[in-house]
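Q: What would this chain look like folded?
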Amino acid sequence: MKIAILSIEPTLYSTRKLVEAGVERGHEVEVIDYLRCYMNITSMNPQVIYMGESLEGFDAIIPRIGASQTFYGTAVVRQFEMMGVFTANPSQAISRSRDKLHCLQLLAREGIELPVTGFAHSTKDIDGLINTVSGAPLVIKLLEGTQGIGVVLAETYQTAKSVIEAFRGLDANILVQEFIEEAGGADLRCFVVGDKVIAAMKRQGAEGEFRSNLHRGGTAKKIRLSPEERSTATRSAKAMGLRVAGVDLLRSNRGPVVMEVNSSPGLEGIETATKVDVSGKIIEFLEKNAQKG
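A: My prediction, written as structure tokens:
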């Protein structure tokens, strides 16, 4: 097979491991900076052009689209789809997952358990918004935040009110969510490929830190999921239309609740913690499912 990995940074761990996994299995693998691509949008002969040459003959692509480049990145993925190239994650699914509000609405429609969440435009009824999630403590999130950036734990009502007013004063879109205290600053990252969870790890936040992101100093270890947690993860990925996804769960008193569904989950943390060849599993999925045209 001829596989393209859409990534702006070929030296990143995830990109390198996907290249190595593909080459080890006898495939031709090329890393393409999607921001340097441009497109010829025609009905009969759509093209993606890179460094002056039309990208042709690819059987599959693996999008690794950065959160800040979602609009252009998904446009490139969509162009490959027009050309009949199989993609590990469809463009529409990537867009859905990147819009946190839309993501939560789709999950809620499927009956998947979530933290109680509020969303509003106006600051004229902050009291009502806070009461929607049963008051403080609560978590305030920027819709565009990633890796724990733009996530604030407001432990008191007055703090929550001040943070919401500050964010809205900057015209930032925010979500207000209940704080799942019983999770103890830990979450579960479930790595879904196809319709299966192939690896899972528990991420624990650093002391005094409620965010469990490894980029924030958290630690990770392999975890065994319950059947309910496994089902929640696969249903969440399916609701987004994602074939490869990182689903983040919290263990609450009412069962697993979904915090986020990630369309470009990092591989280093999950492979290091679980010793599972996740990149190899992704290539195997392409082998079974990619059909040219």
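Residues 227-240 form the longest helix (14 residues).
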